[in-house]
Amino acid sequence: MDSQQQHSTPYQSDESAGVQPSVGYPQASASFYHVSQTGHAHVTSPQHPASLVHQPAPGHADADADADAEFGDIFQEPEGFLPPPKEATFEEYTMRSGQTIKLRLVGSHPLWGFLLWNAGKTSAYYLESKARDWVEGRDILELGAGAGLPSLVCAILGARTAVVTDYPDCDLVENMRINAKACESLLSLREGKASPLHVEGFKWGADPETVLRHLPADSDSGPRAAGRGFDLLILADVIYNHPQHRELIESVKQTLKRARHALAFVVFTPYQPWLLEKIVAFFPRAEENGFVVTKVFEKLTEKAMFEDDPGDERLRRTVFGYELRWKEEELVNQSTTPHT
Known about the structure:
- This is Protein N-terminal and lysine N-methyltransferase EFM7.
- The chain has helices at about 65-70, 120-130, 130-135, 150-155, 170-185, 210, 245-255, 275-280, 280-290, 315, 330; strands spanning about 10-15, 20, 35, 40-45, 90-95, 100-105, 140-145, 160-165, 195-200, 230-235, 265-270, 290-300, 320-325.
- By secondary structure, it is of the alpha/beta class.
């Protein structure tokens, strides 16, 4: 496909005409596909790093121990054989106000937390434009936050609560804590008032109490309130993980406040265009689970994150933004049958 060719909206729905959501792209393989820094493809499972660890075959749990006893340490790597872990890197984001946020990124990680993604930067910029309606005085939760840029921006813009979460991995969680602490100097806090930022490791589909407990107890979103939840959820570059759509939507359902103003802000770039159909399958699934899906923007960035990667170059440069809001019947009946 010509990189300059005009693209259709990646998610289209015309319920009145009985048309199913479609993207008009070839079917992608079922594998979750990443492109390494060298440009070669490899399959990984970003939400389950434990799956990368060798597991003995059934009935052979002691195989490794037996091998060690028989061969001694001849297969041990000598000291200095493995490369040292990569150092953390830093990037800066300048807000419209001129304030600069310095972000620490982990040196390397199977969940790709060592990059500041285009969707994260675009989300932060868009949230600045929506601060009055979406952010100020609101309770906010970010899922799959990485370095946490959108959450930090929301805290600076006056969010009442901003909970930054990612997969419960020690390196990722500690890095988010470092960024949240470094951001405190940019917050306009009254004397004696605590930071609105909270950091948690959170696995999609898990018990939401880990994050819900950070909601103010004296509000209508507090721990004892019916329909409690966050006013705004941020999902920046997370729906690429299509094998986890079910768990992700379940977490959205369990943490988004049952109110007309509440919304989940979903932003993504199709870094692997051949997987676009699987990625955008998130949206019809969200509709099946009680949400109205609306496209809010489409932005063409200056360049793709990985310029030498295969696939349509224009798509790899494009950031798409959507919002999910509760259907009216979901606001009336809060005891819905799960569809995920």
